[in-house]
């Protein structure tokens, strides 16, 4: 399936004050429970300029396969591990209709961090 037909999920998470670093650490520790799912194409954690707000973007092969994951025990356990840090949030879903690959797309996160 091409990237242009991916199903994208974007979560906005409000994290309790003072818990941001712990949230980031736990998100990284438990992330493979999402990314190891065969229908997951990857996920990103972004910290907003707005105090305590994070965005999580996750791409999936299809909406039905994401919905299957969303109701699974694996997802419930993942959510339970992150729930203590949350004070609120929302979810938006969408279908990717186009993707333009940038020149830096093949740079890994570790390579990018080392270059900073």
Automatic annotation (TrEMBL):
Gene3D superfamilies: 3.30.70.100
InterPro entries: ABM_dom (IPR007138), Dimeric_a/b-barrel (IPR011008)
Family matches, as Pfam families: ABM
Domain ABM: 7-94
Superkingdom field: Bacteria
Name listed for the protein in its UniProt record: ABM domain-containing protein
Organism in which the protein naturally occurs: Actinoalloteichus fjordicus
Lineage of origin: Bacteria, Bacillati, Actinomycetota, Actinomycetes, Pseudonocardiales
């Amino acid at each position: 399936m091409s990237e242009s037909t991916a199903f994208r999920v974007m979560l906005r998470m409000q994290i309790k004050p003072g818990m941001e670093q712990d949230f980031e650490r736990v998100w990284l520790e438990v992330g493979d429970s999402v990314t190891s799912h065969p229908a997951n194409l990857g996920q990103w954690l972004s910290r907003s300029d707005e105090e305590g707000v994070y965005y999580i973007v996750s791409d999936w092969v299809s909406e039905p396969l994401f919905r299957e994951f969303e109701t699974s025990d694996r997802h419930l356990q993942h959510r339970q591990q992150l729930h203590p840090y949350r004070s609120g949030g929302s979810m938006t879903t969408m279908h990717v209709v186009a993707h333009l690959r940038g020149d830096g797309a093949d740079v890994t996160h570790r390579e990018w961090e080392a270059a900073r």
